[in-house]
Amino acid sequence: MSVGLGTAEQLVRSVTELRIEAARHARGFIEAEDRQGHYTTFPLTTVSIGAVYVTPGMFHVAEDVASAAAAAKHHAKRRNAGLYIHAAQSGSDDPADTSLLSALAV
Predict the structure, then answer these.
(1) Is the pLDDT of residue 29 over 50?
(2) Rounded to an integer, what distance in angstroms lies between the CA atom of residue 66 and that of residue 74?
(3) Do both 38 and 54 map to the same domain?
(4) Which is the most buried residue in 31, 39, 66, 90, by most CB within 10 A?
(5) pTM of the complete model beyond 0.70
C-alpha cells in the first residue's frame, strides 16, 4: 500500500499537533487572547460527572436522588476522576449509603 504525499503531510501535521497539545497539557495551561485582546494564560478546564444508578422504588422523594447525585459529583471532583458512579445499597433509604461501582479517569 502506498501513501500519497498529501496523506503523508497530513500525518506529519497531525503528529506535530498532538505533540504540541501534549506539551500544553503538561504545562497545565494554554496561552491565548482574552476578551480584551490581551495575551494571557488560562488554566486547562476539567469535567467531573457524578452519577447514581437508581432503580424504581429505591428513593421516595426527588430530593434524595438529588442529594445522592450531588454526593457522587463531590466524589468525582475530590478524586479528580472524570466519572464517578455510585449504586445505592438495596433496601436503604439513605442517599449517602452508596457503594462505588466504578471510577474512571477520562
Answers:
(1) yes
(2) 12
(3) no
(4) 66
(5) no
